[in-house]
Each structure stands twice: as C-alpha cells, then as structure tokens.
Design a protein that fits this description.
about 290 residues, alpha/beta, Rossmann fold, seven-stranded mixed β-sheet, two-stranded antiparallel sheet, 12 helices, about 40% helix, about 20% strand, disordered C terminus, binds S-adenosylmethionine, nucleic acid binding, Methyltranfer_dom, methyltransferase
Length: about 290
C-alpha cells in the first residue's frame, strides 16, 4: 500500500492539494473503515491498497472536498455527515463554538440558538458539551436542513427552517446565548480554492451588500431581539471585517462589552457582545443592576 499512497500523494501534490499525504491516507482509511492511525499500522504490515482508491484520489485531485468523498467532517467532538448542498464546517469555527460554550456552561439550563446552522455543527457541539442546555438551530436552505436534520436527530437540538433575519418570532428575549457563523463573503471576493468556490453552496458564502455584511448585521439584529438582558452574542466573520462588525454592534446601542476574538492562528475572526436592556427613556442596562 505504501507505493500506492506515495503515488497518490504525488498526484494530489501536483493538483495543488495542501496536505497531499494526509488526504491520501484519509481516503484509504475511509475505504477500509479504519482510523488513520490504524491505516499506518496496516501499511507497515504490507496490506493491499483498497479497491476504489485510485478513483477517489482522482476525484480529490479534481478538487472535490475531502469531506464530500469521505462523507464526514469532524467538528470538535462530533462527526457530521456532509456532502453536496451543505457548507463543510471549518476548524476556525470551532473557536467560535468554544466562546459560546464557555459562556453557556456558566449558566443553569441555558437556552442557546445557532443562526444559519448548515450541517448543524455548532449546535451539535454545544448540545454535546453543555449539559442541560436547550439548543435551537435555524437554517434557510432546504438542502442544508436535510443534512442538519440527519446530524441533529439524536442530539435533542430543535431545528427550524427559517430566515435568520426573522427567526423564532415568538421567542424574543428568551435566549442566553446566540451564536452564528453567517455567510459574510463580499460579492466581489470570489473564493480561490475550488473546494469552496465549486462545492460550498453560494447561499452559505455570500453575505450580501457591498461589504458582505448584510446577513451578519441581520444576525446581530436577531440576536438583540432574541437575547435576555445580559445575554451573549458571538459571531464569526472575515479578518478584515472585524473593525466593521465591532463598529456596527457598538453603534446600535443594544450591546456592551463588544470584543474581537482571534482564531488559533491569531486572526481576528469573531466578535462577541453582551445584550443591554433598553429602558423606556432610551438609556440602557445589562440587567445586572448597572
Ligand atoms: C457559512 S455557513 C455556516 C454553517 C455552519 N453554521 C457552520 O459553521 O459550519 C452559513 C449558513 O447560513 C445559511 N444561511 C444563509 N442565509 C441564511 C438566512 N437568511 N437565514 C438562515 N440561514 C441562512 C446557509 O445556508 C449556511 O448553511
């Protein structure tokens, strides 16, 4: 098998795959139904290359996402089924989920909503890691909803089809945490990687407006509507959008403690804020007596 893995690695390198050896091993492991660690042990024993391996390598060389070929994406501690029609969850979003989890675990029976849930990644991770949480997830796309339905079936997460701009109209002021990784790419910023440009749904990528921030602004408005005073909002965005996101949150008068957060590579990829309650006279308080 080592020879086949080497030639697959070479084929994938030429095709521009950033991690050719890892991808080759993961494809072989997928076909054999074993972990990558177990695959390495099998390689040492001289095991045969699995049937169908070259065909999968060719598809990967054609820049079909690895996760579409294996049918799985791992997000924090959960394995999610993914494929055509749904956004493949990204490692940087794990840090956004972490922020929501860190807040939620401090609360008794917190109510949390994930706006634009896609595969259900953030909602599933929160349900997995926050005992006693009531988790909701909202998604507009029929195709993504089907994947999320499958991934969230045994999680207890309440999945709703709807627009994040108008989501959960009966539940205003009742959530402790709102988390979102909304579409945020500006219309003129076409993704470079074919895996993204050709395989992630456009509905998952483009945020609307010249700056790509129409949907993030809508998510923030919805978060302000859904959160209790003192509730926590955290949202992913592009690095260059961090100042604009902080500015529009600070400018609404609905938020305090607006904070930019870095991902694991040190880039400004998320912003959080705490909901202030509105008093009749227009002044605000976070509900904590200040
Ligand atoms: C960038 S993807 C993130 C998916 C998932 N939360 C994740 O982090 O992997 C954005 C998601 O928002 C959904 N979406 C786009 N517009 C929406 C809208 N107006 N209302 C609700 N969901 C929307 C897309 O279909 C997509 O699943």
């Amino acid at each position: 098998m080592e020879d086949a893995l080497r030639s697959a690695e070479q084929r994938l390198r030429v095709a521009g795959i950033p991690s050719p050896r890892v991808d080759a091993e993961l494809l072989a492991a997928h076909l054999l139904g074993v972990s990558r660690g177990r695959l390495r042990a099998l390689v040492l024993t001289g095991a045969e290359v699995p049937e169908g391996f070259e065909a999968l390598v060719e598809q990967r060389a054609g820049r079909v996402p690895l996760q579409h070929l294996t049918g799985t994406a791992t997000f924090r501690r959960v394995d999610l089924a993914v494929g055509p029609g749904v956004f493949v969850p990204r490692p940087e979003t794990e840090s956004v989920a972490q922020l929501a989890i860190d807040r939620a675990v401090q609360l008794d029976a917190p109510r949390i909503v994930d706006l634009g849930t896609g595969s259900g990644a953030i909602a599933a991770a929160i349900a997995d890691e926050v005992p006693g949480a009531e988790v909701h997830a909202v998604e507009l796309s029929e195709l993504a909803l089907a994947w999320a339905g499958r991934n969230l079936a045994s999680s207890g997460v309440q999945l709703t089809q709807g627009d994040l701009a108008t989501a959960l109209p009966e539940q205003g002021g009742s959530f402790d945490v709102v988390v979102s990784n909304p579409p945020y790419i500006p219309p003129d910023a076409v993704p470079v990687d074919p895996e993204v440009a050709d395989h992630d749904p456009h509905l998952a990528l483009y945020g609307g407006g010249a700056d790509g921030l129409d949907l993030p602004r809508a998510a923030a408005r919805t978060a302000a509507r859904l959160l209790k005073p003192g509730g926590y909002f955290v949202m992913e965005h592009a690095e260059v959008q961090a100042p604009a996101v902080a500015a529009f949150l600070a400018g609404t008068g609905s938020w305090e403690a607006v904070t930019t957060h870095q991902d694991l590579t040190g880039r400004d990829r998320a912003t959080s804020a705490v909901r202030i309650s509105e008093r009749p006279g227009g002044s605000t308080t976070n509900g904590a007596g200040r």
